[in-house]
Model the fold of this input.
Amino acid sequence: MSSSNDSQFRGYLRSDGRKGIRNCIVVAYLVECAHHVAREIVSYFRGQPVHLIGFGGCYPNAYADRMMQQLCTHPNVGGVLLLSLGCESFNRHRLAERVAGTGRPVSTIVIQQTGGTRKSIDAGKAWVQQSLQKLEEVPRVPISINELVVGTVCGGSDATSGISANPAVGRAFDMLVEQGAATIFEETGEMIGLEDVMSARAVTPDLGRELKSSVEKAAFYYKEMGHASFAPGNAEGGLTTIEEKSIGAYCKSGDSPISGLLKPGDVPPHGGLYLLDVVPDGEVRFGFPNINDNAEIAELIACGSHVILFTTGRGSVVGSAISPVIKICANPETFDRMSEDMDVNAGKILRLEASVDDVGKEIFDKVLDLVSGSQSCSESLGHQEFVLTYKSFEPIGPACLPG
Amino acid sequence: MKTEGKSSKLLRIHRDDNVLIVIRPIRPGDRDLLDGREVVFSQDVAIGHKVAARDIKAGEKVYKCGVPIGSTKQDVPAGGHIHLHNLKSDYLSTYTLDKDHVFVK
Done:
């Protein structure tokens, strides 16, 4: 897969034309009350491609509806089992119809109708068992770099993140974009202080204005919350201000022009670099924009990301349901301590043993390894974290995707 | 990227920066040559942290990667550790834990 025409790697073809690099069944609970039953079903299939996702709330939310639809029809997903208690607000009928419309196997177990916990677990296990065999029938087709969507996020950042791992991801992003892939960076709350620098990279002036106003929205939102996107560990690691953290986060985007602004669930229409606006629209509701790193990862995956590039300095261990996470460790001391969790040691840059370009190429190659079927560290350790909470968004305007 | 001073422990990221990044732990008693002057470090500074590349006056903007990351709250001599005690955001305050693990602004 050294060029966009190379076809040595095979993806899973879905009915919308997108291709997956994984072929998993998701078991999705539609309210916290169905979480235990869903988890019991998934835990029975440990080591097999069966992932747990869900939404805990009992009240309706358009954002959560859309996120669940996009996740359940993600190209890495081959079948969906929905777990409903029976009385929650989540529209299980519409979600099941959307999934069925894509040709994927889907079934809904309503715990109140099925006769309680044990009967629901048994019914779910039987359905998953049968569906795992059906996954074999999904057509395998060549997949090229220009069909990939790659997202990036940073977590457990320290001051090394912004000088080693994040610039190296930026270099990998540039290589991916050059070969036609779509790449997504996010967390507008971590662009504060850089709004003008970033806007200047937009492919049109109107998009530049949209990018700038998304950061201003984030600054306003976080101000209302009384707290920037900044954790105590960031300060211990040498970061002092949100602007300083922003510079580090921002350089994950590389040097490509910015082709568009997405909101959670919007799939990039073609290759290029995109900013994902993760901060809710309207008045401040439902608390912090993203309560932790996995909430951001779930949004990147809802935008179609096949792979997530996760940079960390302090040492995060998380992975994700649905799409594999590559862990890029910025701090050489952290890498020495936690190497089993880390796919790439960007700390070599600080020890002057490798250049940013060298590590960028290593990350790019690691993406291709994952496409070819090898597992990332977090995948092989069984990490499948998932978080989805309440939010509200207006749809993106016409200036956000100029072509 | 190139190291600055004699010790190879400090990295200059951008030519306009007035801070340097610690890439190997600094120990008390370490010496370095910064802005044409010998500096003796009096405390540990961990990797990833910043020290002043030159004397910085109170209220000056601090530049890292060529971009302002806040303003100093007091004078900082060349080689001085720059962190929460002497640098503040020009946007949103930083909340963190103090030495007794109490959440403070």
